[in-house]
């Protein structure tokens, strides 16, 4: 006589010790990358209203925050620069003394041995129209003219010592032309992270404040349509073939299905970006006492890892790294 139920799945959940032993997904400090903002002309950090706990940094506060992140054990930092002057072609992006390139040099000197120092490679913070590329006379974003600007920006970032370039502009062919240009100048070790499946998302809202975005309109002619999973996977496959060392899915939580399929399809590391809106939503709900902040943050990151991310860009990186160390 068999007793009911025959299958007792709860046996695996009975104590913290058993649960820990059978947990399928890990979350470690070194799997987290901290995005950071540095703004030209600031003398001290300036808080970003829509992202409580995140700031635009001065050079000094940037250095101090990067040291803190390194001490917390995070895997890397991803730098975004906000220039004092903008123009149509984003001249400050590839100027050797442009804010992003100066900050890169400073961070490589300060924390370059402990952290992978990474730089955002895109024009949107540097153009006066706020688009990720340069514009054609008809106002459209000119793919191939933008690739020339990206190439110049890549060389400037590599010369500044960036270990890894984050190609976030969603122009066709960007990985191939940048790899070729870097190799031709001897930068064969500079890593390329392709924001392969980057969606035109409402969850970037707070970031626009963070970088003082000049954009009017949207990025739907270059970023992916949120309805398309297959096309996101295709982007990742193309970027891997063009020579990307790592591919990315962005945003994270609204696109976990894409993340899983990309992880199952390509053979390079896959990262995900938990973007500003994802951060702001949890912070806002927690500030209202509606969710347990720490538990929600950890669950969100664990979910992104479970869906297939080998590493995650998150504004909580140092704080979570310290929690994980406790
Ligand atoms: C563009 C860029 C964006 C983000 C990172 N890089 C904004 C956009 O595409 O509009 C968003 C990051 C975030 O929301 O946290 N260079």
What is the strand tally?
A: 10
- Largest β sheet strand count, sense and barrel closure: 8 strands, parallel, barrel
CATH level-two architecture: Alpha-Beta Barrel
Mean pLDDT: 97
Amino-to-carboxy terminus distance: 49 Å
Count of individual helical segments: 11
- CATH-derived topology: TIM Barrel
The oligomeric state is single chain
Describe this structure in words.
The protein has 326 residues and is of the alpha/beta class. It has one domain (27-325): Alpha-Beta Barrel (TIM Barrel), CATH 3.20.20. The protein contains 11 helices and 10 strands. An 8-stranded parallel beta barrel has the order 1-4-5-6-7-8-9-10, surrounded by 8 helices. Helix 2 runs parallel beside helix 3 (99-111), helix 2 (59-72) packs parallel to helix 11 (317-325) and helix 4 crosses helix 5 (174-184). The mean pLDDT is 97. Ligand PBG is lined by residues 120, 122, 124, 132, 168, 204, 207, 219, 275-276.
